Amino acid sequence: MGLLVDGQWHDKWYDTSSSGGKFQRESAKLRNWVTVDGAAGPTGQGGFKAESGRYHLYVSLACPWAHRTLIFRKLKGLEKHIDVSVVSPDMLSNGWTFNVDAGSTGDSLFNSDFMHQIYTRHKKDYSGRVTVPVLWCKQTNQIVSNESSEIIRMFNSAFNEITSNHDDYHPAELHAKIDSVNDLVYDNINNGVYRAGFATTQGAYEEAYNGVFMALDSIEKILENNRYLAGKRITEADWRLFTTLIRFDAVYHGHFKCNRQRLEDFPNISNYVRELYQWPGVAETVNFYHIKRHYYYSHDMINPTRVVPAGPAIDFNAQHNRGRQSSN
Ligand SMILES: N[C@@H](CCC(=O)N[C@@H](CS)C(=O)NCC(=O)O)C(=O)O
């Protein structure tokens, strides 16, 4: 684990000493948008027109943020149009690697050894964390975006004319609702589990832990009367939550100490996560070997023996009861 400073790799864990033991996530720095006609998006530069074969996605199958982009690539029929390289689950002194023996597909564009080489290929003297996902433009040889929440919005709409898939997971009439659910889920659940797991003081951990379960209790209530988080219709808010939920009992409950309850103990959430897991194409994006191996093996300051737990045994293919809610 580390970061680039003026293009040089430094092996360095997150510094929580100046923040009272709190983990603070660095915001993503590369924020251009692929658009239908190449016009600039809400942030960054223009020039990235949606075209088949022009973009490449770098992901980890362990990472919940990268997982969102893989799900949208599936749901939106983009597999033929956007190819993918998968890093190894082991993120050690060189950060993410393309070590094929350790579970990577290799870097199919440049045959690089390390993900940080993709960032320095983009900009020789890049400074910052080397995160996945990354959307790469093969035509201009640069990173378009390293922000998953924006990559899924590009995938949701920019390629519709190419794929003829007009499914919309961010419909205009639900923007406000989706934003409010996303705020609750991002701070307290998606990032909340990391804030609990990477906290280095008791107080910072407990604050994050309380947020995780406050938000899960709210979600459990929402799902009592609504099939999905924004009502009747599945939206990006559901997929953004799903990638944390599917990892929860396997990793966040134990490794990140989010252990008031397992998700299996929440009747609505546990059925809902099964419905989403069983959604066509989605199970293929979930890889529990990469998920467990990454966290338990890479974070040796949390788990110094690097022993990866064998369980839990959970059947995500079991029948769910969703669809019986009075949807509103
Ligand atoms: N804001 C980013 C966050 C991505 C992120 O933090 N990815 C993690 C993997 S789960 C990572 O690559 N971490 C490496 C690091 O922080 O050095 C997004 O949502 O795309």
Automatic annotation (TrEMBL):
SUPFAM superfamilies: GST C-terminal domain-like, Thioredoxin-like. It comes from the Bacteria. It holds the Pfam family GST_C_2. Gene3D superfamilies: 1.20.1050.10, Glutaredoxin. Residues 171-298 form the GST C-terminal domain. PANTHER family: GLUTATHIONE S-TRANSFERASE OMEGA-LIKE 1-RELATED, GLUTATHIONYL-HYDROQUINONE REDUCTASE. This is Glutathione S-transferase family protein.
